[in-house]
Amino acid sequence: MMSITKGKDTKASLALLGLAAFLSLAVTVAALLFLRNTYDNAIEEGRAQADRFIKGAQDAVGRSFLGVDMVLASMGRLLDLEHAHRETLNVPRSSQLIASTTHQNLLIRNVALLDAQGNTLVSSDPNGFGNTMVLPQGFAKKVLDQPVPTMLVSVPVTSFSSGGLVLFFARYARLADGSKLLVVAEIKLNILTSILAQGVDSTRVEATMENADGTLLASSPGRRSLAVAAQSIQLPVSLNFNFDLDVFIPQEPVKFMPARLTGSPALVAARGLLHNDVALTVSIPMDKVLQEWYAQRRLILSTAAIFIVIIFSATAVGLAYLRRRAQAQHTLTDAKAALDQALESMENGFLLLDAQLRVVRWNRRYLELFPWHASSIVAGCPMQTLLRSTAQECQIGATETERQTWMAQRLEHLNQPLNNHENHLPKGVVVEIAERRTADGGIVILYQDVTALRKASAEIAQLAYFDSLTGLPNRRLLGDRLTQAINASIRSSNHGALLFLDLDHFKIVNDTMGHDVGDALLRQVTQRLKTCVREADTVARLGGDEFVVMLQNLGANPSLAKQQAQSVGDKILHSLNRPYELLGVLHRSSCSIGATFFADAEVNAADLLKQADIAMYQAKAGGRNALCFFDSRMLDFIQSRADLERDLRTALTHQQFELHYQLQATNQGVAVGAEVLVRWQHPVRGLLSPLEFIALAEETGLILPLGDWVLRTACEQLKLWKAHPVYAHLQLAVNVSARQFHQSDFVERVSAVLCSTAINPTLVKLELTESLVLNDVPDTIAKMHQLKALGVRFSIDDFGTGNSSLSYLTRLPLDQLKIDKSFVQNIGTHKTDATIVQTIIGMSTNLGLEVIAEGVETIAQRDFLAAHGCLVYQGYLYSKPVPVTVFEALVQSMANLQPLTPTPGDNV
Q1: Of 120-129, 205-214, 642-651, which gets the smallest average pLDDT?
Q2: pLDDT level of residue 240 (50, 70, 90 thresholds)
Q3: Full 3-state SS string of 463-515
Q4: pLDDT, averaged across the chain
Q5: How confident is the model at residue 3 (pLDDT cuts 50, 70, 90)?
Q6: DSSP annotation string for 152-181
Q7: Which of 172, 266, 424, 874 might form a disulfide with 180, Cβ 3.0–4.6 angstroms?
Q8: CB 166, CB 112: distance < 8 Å
Q9: Regarding the domain delimited by 348-456, which CATH topology (the fold level of the hierarchy) does it fall under?
């Protein structure tokens, strides 16, 4: 059936195309025939115009030539030349007669009698002999050689008298003695041209007057020569013209040939005059002849093209209609097959019921979901039959009443316009059922197997709310449960507790034994934590080695609640302290716990976690492996520390720091330098000692910009002292922190400061602590040698208080050891400290190092140090740290040998 329909459509399309081709051909042939007819008409009209123009020109020019010829011929009679001799000519009277005769002919400018040599004998000009005619060469001879006197026309020449172009018309007359005289008329060329152009359309036609030898005599429009000088014309034989190329005969007066002036294709007509050596031509260029035909051609072709476009447009419309009709037929033919294919390829089960709830269509997937319907389902089968079969298959063990109730509920659902629900089938299959009404009252039911989707949703929920490693609730689920617990505590007034756990030194396990072992440890910790709490409590993992235990319903009594939380915390500490077996090796671990409570006061989950976290860090600070309860004073301390850090950053930006200088002098009272000590001029708290902010600067990293500022300020002060003889020799000792010294570019920073200030590097002494030196000995040695090469000096600060190793002293480029003030202040009190001081001094002497004692406050201390070889001191015996102006005054007084007044007190 489809092939028959397709064949009919093809035949109709071919017939339509054939008709269109025939009509287009007919229009084209008609247009061409009409074009040919109009073309022939245009040519005939051009021929007629050329013939009319040449006849008019022949008449006008012929009459003019005849008039001139009659004047010239009448000169013999007028002057009675047949009875006259040259010597007897009465020139004045002859001139007057000639002038009176020629005056009536507007074409003639001048008439004269010339002898054979061209000399003027008589002229119509009043001046007579003063007007000389200069004839073209050979023209006079040609006229005189004629056997019969006939008028000849010369080529155009320039007039001797007027300077314009003229033609000479001449014939001869005989005197009484038989000699010949030339009778010559001078004709202005422009007048002759205007006569030639009479009756000629100058915008379309070219007209010429030519001599027998092909010389152009006159033309319209004006030209000096022919475009086809080598080509001549031949006029009718009766006129006795003999030109070699194209032939004009009386039956064909107009011919296709090049125009005489422009050489363009033209219709050319030629006529001779009564004077046999002159011919007239009229040329109408073909573009002028066909000008109107070109416009007609465009109109005809455009009209034909429009008709052809209309024909093919109509054909296209017809073909489109045939295609749409064929497509519609194909669509109708293929609809059932396409629908069947679509239904069979669906991933969802499909069932179509009519308005009476009878089966109309179903697909393969439906029978895969409900295989027990395969033997009973047919078109027209009631839906109730299918429901009964499903109830028997899926509700095994149910009573008949229960099955009837279920069937009634399903039929009730089918009566609703929209209905979505799920059904659990055997083998754990979950089917989502979507039911929709059709326009005719039927029902479309789609069955989608969502078993994998429901399983994936459960897994996603597990990942979203539970930790993948331990299976414990994660931060999100803990937040939800904690919020619920807080609300429940507020309603019941029962206390709850939150314990924040962090494993001690867990990072070492990961770094030394690997992350797999670390994960195994976390899983074991999880199992132990579960055994330490009640079933109603929550154990959660926040991430890493951080766990949270939430205890609920601890009672309304705060003391009892704290005891219970303490008991659980102690139980956790004891449980987690027991050894773990990791890779067959026993491993011990501990944890630090921070605890906080919630009850009747409203507090959110984030704040509780923050409080427990703060308490946990307090437990770590207290030595780890302990439980610490949150106290509000902890927040005050943290807030105070945060405020101090903020102020410290502001101080760096606004230059709130200043340097104080503590004098270093010899036992002779000579100032050798000072140690620079930073002070903070706080806008609210006043002048602060470094003991109040240096530790915080170290922790936050602000010690780096602060240390750079101290070093640069000290060097700039040395630069100011450079030109002053009292201060130029002074050395400044600058303390360098370990974090500052171990920067990768520390050497470059120091070098840049030294270069920018242009000071003597030996006046700068960097004070390092023993812990700094021993932290990374190879790096320390390398940097010290680089700085030593620049001239910088080094001193070990607080020597004797750290974990000293005498071996490094011989490897470091040191210049000085500084005895710690704790030993100096115990001189005379503790014998062991005095012995240590003596040992340090002796060791320095043996190593060739300078030695300086800090914290010298009494003369007795100074005398003891001097007696044992320490000759440079720093302490309140000489001066406390003072601003630079006070320090300069002190050095000035020492230079003037003024006595110093010791000022005992603490050395900061």
Answers
A1: 120-129
A2: very low
A3: HHHECCCCCCECHHHHHHHHHHHHHHHHHHCCCEEEEEEEECCHHHHHHHHCH
A4: 84
A5: low
A6: EEPPPEE-TTT-SEEEEEEEEEE-TTS-EE
A7: 172
A8: no
A9: Beta-Lactamase (3.30.450)
The one-letter amino acid code at 251 reads: Q
DSSP states along 438-460: -TTS-EEEEEEE-HHHHHHHHHH
For the cut 80, the answer to whether the pLDDT of residue 132 exceeds it is no
pLDDT number for residue 803:
52
Q: Residue 290 in contact with residue 242, Cβ under 8 Å?
A: no
DSSP 8-state code for residue 87: G
Q: What is the CATH number of domain 42-64+206-285?
A: 3.30.450
Tell me how far the alpha carbon of residue 527 is from its chain's centroid: 57
Convert the pLDDT of each residue in 403-414 to its tens digit. 888 888 888 777
Per CATH, domain 469-630 is 3.30.70.270 = yes
Examine the pLDDT at 102 and tell me if it is beyond 70.
Answer: yes
DSSP state string for 259-313: -TTT-SEEEEEEEE-SSTTEEEEEEEEHHHHTHHHHHHHHHHHHHHHHHHHHHHH
Looking at the structure, give the CATH architecture of the domain made up of residues 644-895. Answer: Alpha-Beta Barrel (3.20)
The amino acid at 310: I
Question: Cα torsion at 664, 668, 670, 673 (round to 10°)?
Answer: -20
Q: Which pLDDT band holds residue 5 (cuts at 50, 70, 90)?
A: low
* DSSP symbol at 615: H
What pairs with residue 211 in β-bridges?
Answer: 278
Where do the CATH 3.30.450.20 domains begin and end in the chain?
Answer: 71-192, 348-456
Angle formed by the axes of helices 506-513 and 515-531, to 10°? 140
- CATH class as words, domain 71-192: alpha beta
Hey, what amino acid is at 437? Answer: R
Angle at 880 between CA 879 and CA 885, to 5 degrees: 80
Among 75-84, 549-558, 770-779, which is the least confidently predicted range?
Answer: 770-779
- Helices 831-847, 859-867: axis angle to 10 degrees equals 50
Place of tokens 């409570």: 597
Q: Spell out the alpha helix ranges (H) of 346-399.
A: 364-369, 383-394
Place of tokens 């600067």: 697
SS3 614: helix
Cα radius of gyration rounded to whole Å, the chain: 67
pLDDT tens by residue, 380-429: 888 888 888 888 878 777 888 888 888 888 887 777 777 777 777 877 78
